[in-house]
């Protein structure tokens, strides 16, 4: 049996390795949520930034619940590989920017002491949309969210991302330290502003003076992140094993494309991520709107079309010309809701997205993208629909995409979603002539501008009835 990847593994020359001395790397970042996306995105940017401009920016990788990636990092001295895949071939790179690893569920104290450590200056986060406890109807804290409720009850024993952020900031304030910068890397619009509001709300409920201190001294830059990273499978690990000549339990496949647009507003410094290609700006909003509406909105459409057509992967959907055409139609409609994006040619961006979705070497499961659709609809499909109706447009493509979602839930008879029971109840009580009505009745899901737009709702119905 092959040995496990570790700092003593002799790797083939074809594998790109960290070009800095890992033994000299000190921690400066805590990252919360060490799923595949983080491993193929922020950790890669940090590795390349360290290569260009070495400094104390090693990552302490924290997972809130599952110990699996933490145990794997421990077994591999913090190393893992990414395989960048395209038609021109596979390229393997070992990432060594991670210097420590903690599972919060079993070692809360060590997470809190990392957050309270003056050496930590930035906390980056990828925990997915549903983990924040954001009430879509108010934009504020959802007190019924499990982790939010737990963290409000026991602020000194956090379990959720907000609880850890707030308790960590409280510890720093008590110690007379500066706060850390909180850098949200989840696909939420104005993600930094959203997290700032939620952190302040939670902090205010426990201590108004703490909230005032965070409001004054804390920084929550917005960021837009982009890279297609399918969940790893046995095939992914097998492929990595062949490239590395060693076993890598954390291996992931990803596409060549990589983008990070970050608001340059940090409390006390950051790695030279620009040396790795990150774009720093004082306004991320046009970039994130472009990405959420064109990439993610179309992804949601394609994923549910794929489910309806019994196709496994996004690339399978794109291989059907009639379905690929729907992706283009969707983007060409929604693009009219976007402001000009500095440095980006939108028609070329759309063409590039269609090519990225079609990458035949990327096995991105439709079911993975269909996960948590209720958490994704507002920013991906519903806000552009609201904008288009306000512009006097029919917003036909967004209505079609919402209809496709409803039809796919109905067909599957299941979904993996925090609002699963409500979604399945709506699917079970669909009216023959107004099939979307039970979905529009799910509290807080559709904004009033859409719930009251009869013409748009008729288009949703027509889409549902076409399947
Ligand atoms: C996808 C995203 O799973 C999903 O909902 O749309 O994860 C997408 O692959 C990334 O945002 C690409 O940057």
From TrEMBL:
- Domain named Mannitol dehydrogenase N-terminal is located at 28-274
**What is the name of this protein?**
Mannitol dehydrogenase family protein
Source organism per UniProt: Rhizobium rhizophilum
Q: Which UniProt keywords apply?
A: Oxidoreductase
Q: From which residue to which does the signal peptide run?
A: none
Q: Which InterPro entries match?
A: 6-PGluconate_DH-like_C_sf, 6PGD_dom2, Mannitol_DH, Mannitol_DH/Oxidoreductase, Mannitol_DH_C, Mannitol_DH_N, NAD(P)-bd_dom_sf
Q: Where is the Mannitol dehydrogenase C-terminal domain?
A: 283-411
Kindly list any coiled-coil regions of this protein. Answer: none
Show the SUPFAM superfamilies listed in the entry: 6-phosphogluconate dehydrogenase C-terminal domain-like, NAD(P)-binding Rossmann-fold domains
Q: Does the keyword Oxidoreductase apply?
A: yes
């Amino acid at each position: 049996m092959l040995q496990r990847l570790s700092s003593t593994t002799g790797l083939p020359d074809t594998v790109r390795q960290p070009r800095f001395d890992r033994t000299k790397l000190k921690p400066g970042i805590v990252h919360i949520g060490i799923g595949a996306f983080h491993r193929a995105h922020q950790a890669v940017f940090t590795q390349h930034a360290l290569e260009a401009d070495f400094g104390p920016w090693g990552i302490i990788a924290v997972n809130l619940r599952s110990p699996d990636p933490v145990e794997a990092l421990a077994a591999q001295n913090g190393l893992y590989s990414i395989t960048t895949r395209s038609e021109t071939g596979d390229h393997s790179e070992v990432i060594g920017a991670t210097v420590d690893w903690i599972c919060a569920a079993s070692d809360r104290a060590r997470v809190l002491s990392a957050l309270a450590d003056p050496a930590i200056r930035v906390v980056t986060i990828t925990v997915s949309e549903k983990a924040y406890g954001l009430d879509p109807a108010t934009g504020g804290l959802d007190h019924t969210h499990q982790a939010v409720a737990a963290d409000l009850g026991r602020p000194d024993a956090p379990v959720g991302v907000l609880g850890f952020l707030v308790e960590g900031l409280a510890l720093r304030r008590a110690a007379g330290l500066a706060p850390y910068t909180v850098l949200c890397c989840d696909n939420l619009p104005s993600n930094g502003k959203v997290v700032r509001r939620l952190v302040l709300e939670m902090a205010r409920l426990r201590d108004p003076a703490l909230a005032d201190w965070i409001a004054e001294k804390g920084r929550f830059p917005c960021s837009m992140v982009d890279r297609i990273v399918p969940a790893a499978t046995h095939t992914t690990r097998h492929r990595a094993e062949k490239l590395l000549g060693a076993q890598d339990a954390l291996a992931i496949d990803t596409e060549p494309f990589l983008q990070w647009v970050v608001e340059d507003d940090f409390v006390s410094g950051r790695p030279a991520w620009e040396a790795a290609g990150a774009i720093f700006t004082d306004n991320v909003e046009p970039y994130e709107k472009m990405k959420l509406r064109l990439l993610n909105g179309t992804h949601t459409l394609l994923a549910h079309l794929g489910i309806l057509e019994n196709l496994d992967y996004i690339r399978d959907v794109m291989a059907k010309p009639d379905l690929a055409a729907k992706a283009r139609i969707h983007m060409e409609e929604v693009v009219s809701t976007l402001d000009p994006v500095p440095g980006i040619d939108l028609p070329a961006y759309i063409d590039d997205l269609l090519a990225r979705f079609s990458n035949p070497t990327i096995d991105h499961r439709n079911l993975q993208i269909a996960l948590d659709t209720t958490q994704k609809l507002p920013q991906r499909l519903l806000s552009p629909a609201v904008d288009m109706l306000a512009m006097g447009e029919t917003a036909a493509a967004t209505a079609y995409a919402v209809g496709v979602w409803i039809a796919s839930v109905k067909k599957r008879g299941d979904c993996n979603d925090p609002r699963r029971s409500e979604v399945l109840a709506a699917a079970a009580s669909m009216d023959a002539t107004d099939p979307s009505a039970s979905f529009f009745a799910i509290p807080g899901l559709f904004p009033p501008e859409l719930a009251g737009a009869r013409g748009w709702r008729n288009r949703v119905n027509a889409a549902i009835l076409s399947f």
